[in-house]
Amino acid sequence: MFRAFALLVRASYLLALLVSLACMLPALVQLLAGLPGGRWLWREGLFGALFVIVFVALPMRAAWRLIRRRDLIPETHLRERPVVASLVLLASACALLLSGIIALALFTRLPEADVNIAGPAVLAVMLFAIAILTGEIVLIGRAAPIC
After folding, report:
1. In 15, 54, 77, 86, which residue has its Cα 20 to 30 A from 8's Cα atom?
2. What is the pLDDT of residue 113?
């Protein structure tokens, strides 16, 4: 039973990391290109820094663990913190489901009609942020030295 739970948590978390990286890297390029004169303004700089930390740096930290052939989420962390792992599973599964519904709505309705997906998209981004922050900061915590 635990193996199925661990597999679900790791698979949904990995998919959430990959989808957030795939969706947020083009938005980051657009954000950086839209800055006036290439200078950081206070509001855009603060938003950009938060954006980069949550949706680029933390998923890249998880990718770095995979590149170094370590576990995405160590089994000891899953056994010690099952409630946090359940929260990561729930947030990432809901975010993936909602982004799939948004993609389906865009691909089926966009050519014919104007579709407003702002509300569900913001909810999906918030769920991705909850899953990533909870997974990397609370569930994984401070990783072993990278050296």
Report:
1. 54
2. 73
